[in-house]
Design goal:
- The structure holds 2 protein chains of 2 kinds.
- Chain A folds into 2 domains: 180 residues, no CATH class; 214 residues, no CATH class.
- By secondary structure, chain A is α+β, with helices and mostly antiparallel strands.
- Chain A is elongated.
- In chain A, helix 1 crosses helix 12 and helix 12 runs antiparallel to helix 13.
- In chain A, strands 1, 3, 4, 5, 6, 7, 8, 9, 10, 12 and 13 form an 11-stranded mixed beta sheet that branches. In chain A, strands 2-11 form a two-stranded antiparallel ribbon.
- Chain A is built from 15 helices and 13 strands.
- Chain B is α/β, with parallel strands linked by helices.
- Chain B has a single domain, classed as P-loop containing nucleotide triphosphate hydrolases (Rossmann fold), CATH 3.40.50.
- In chain B, the strands form 2 sheets. In chain B, strands 1, 2, 3, 5 and 6 form a 5-stranded antiparallel beta sheet that branches. In chain B, strands 7-8-9-4-10 form a 5-stranded parallel beta sheet, sandwiched between helices.
- In chain B, helix 3 runs parallel beside helix 5 and helix 5 packs parallel to helix 6.
- The radius of gyration of chain B is 17 Å and the shape is globular.
- Classes of the chains: A alpha+beta, B alpha/beta.
- Chains A and B meet through helix 1, helix 11, helix 12 and helix 15 of A and helix 1, helix 2 and helix 3 of B.
Chain lengths: 416, 209
Amino acid sequence: MIFKLAWRNIITRPLSSGLSAVLLSSSIMVIVLSMLTMKQMKSKFNENANKIDLVVGAKGSRLQSVLCNVFHIDYPNGNIKLKEVDFLFKHPFVKSAIPISLGDSYKKHRIIGTNPNFITQIYNGSISKGNFFNKPLEVVIGANVAAKLKLDIGDSFSGSHGIEESTHDHEDFPYRVVGILSPTGEIIDQLIVTSLESVWQVHPHNDKKGSFDLKTAEEHDHHSHDHKSEVYENNKEVTAVLVNYNSPRAKFSIPGIVNQKNALIGAEPAIEIKQLLDLIEPAVNVIYVLSLFIFGLSLFSIVVTLLNSMKDRKYEISMMRVGGASVRLIFISIILEGFFIGLLGSISGLILGHSIMGIMARFLNLKYNYQFSGLVFDSLELVLLIVTILIGMTAAIFPALAAYRLDISKTLKNKT
Amino acid sequence: MIRTNNITVKYGEIEIKFPNINLDYGGQLLIIGKSGSGKTSLLNVLGGLLSAESGNILVNDIDLFSLSNKKRDKFRGQQIGFVFQTPHFIKSLSVNDNLKFSQYMSSKINQSKIDMLLKKVDLNHLKNASIQNLSEGEKQRISIIRALVNQPSIIFADEPTSALDDNSCNNVVDLLTNLSRENNTTLVIVTHDNRIKDKFPNQINLNDF
């Protein structure tokens, strides 16, 4: 009965109770949203960063090299000559060295020139339909690419130059789908993988920057008419080599060897990603502080709402006391109202947070090439739920004390 | 049963002295007096809502003010019913839930008793209505039922008819007296409403003190 009374008191004052619940809900939503985004981003970034020990690319920003060649979300620094990184393929400390060539895309999905080890060793990927590429211009597509672009075995398409939308399509070199990968929830789901030879064939020029070393589509479109050079077999280029060590000693020797070379830079994804996340963290903390501020506001709002409600209900409360309700019962009923506001605010905040995360996931999936989801949960959410309810109940203490101290005789005398 | 001896109540410097009351189980008493004569204060003291400055009060042979606050609240919930001039209810609850809540406070939930009383005052059709949609006359009748719903041994009514027209006034007084008689409940009414004077042979006039 006491629960029913508290609940009815909340829902018969929808505006004032609603405002408090909405404020609580908003702060919970912001916290949940930031928490889920960071959690998924951290886990995906770290997971993938740990798949590769060293990215060897063209001189430039280490972070850019990692973001481009591991996460496929930035532009390449440039190209490197295969003969310069030849030592990586023979080094005893190197377990695997997988060259990749970037530069083209199809409907915003990057086309990666590499070898099948890229799929099987780095992402543990497997073919769900068809088979791996054997000849130039054959491609294997990620599960999401197949689903989203409705591509199947035997379908053909022409890649666009650059990694954004380009006006320059390689119509003379259509790719043919020969395999579709099983879904992994990893970046590979969003990629189109082909052989290095395909990329070299599509880009048969070898100017200073390398044919497939295009930072933007526009840049390429300005230069695309200038296809004078030839590809020299002994001077082939790739965008990067993804290296995994087979000895802990490699960590102390290979990056040093790479960085000694003028044209190369070695970037360790784990370190770069940690630095990146360390940079993002303060911004996320600002969001947390802001949501704590809203939390404070909602606490204040609950106090004001319940105090006003107490003023409106002082005769009701007096009548309850006259009818035999103990001060304890009145106190508990008001604390329960705080409990319900806290419960409503936290549950709606959690639902909103997850729903918005679900909506945002669509955009984040495109931006980061990862499967973000609104259905990821964190144990901290349970803590958040409990804390919010406790805050609601704490905020109700002051109004409950006001009701506790109500002079029944005086109140009724003024009205009866 | 109510017995009082030399009760006084103090408001700042003013002390009000009340006449002694001797009322047996099932008895009916009308206390009349002008505004400010202390009628409501007397009723609040008898109901354990206000402490007396001096004197003794026995309600059903129990000294109300010797009880702890918790026990006094419980005693009031189980043994005493109140009817006021302006009937206040829990606005968020329906008629039935308001009556049920009264029973809940005295740990005596009995839906059939509520149904029976509602039928008796012809308000059974309003059982699930919101209390806020009732007329003043209906509210007063419901407040009488609320006072009786726990089968108390005493009912205190404070100006129960002052806000009502003649017809409603008669109905409310008849209802109070009849239901009290049927349930062998002691009834004490305080009022300045002269319309009901003739209905109670047992009266105390506070103007005489």
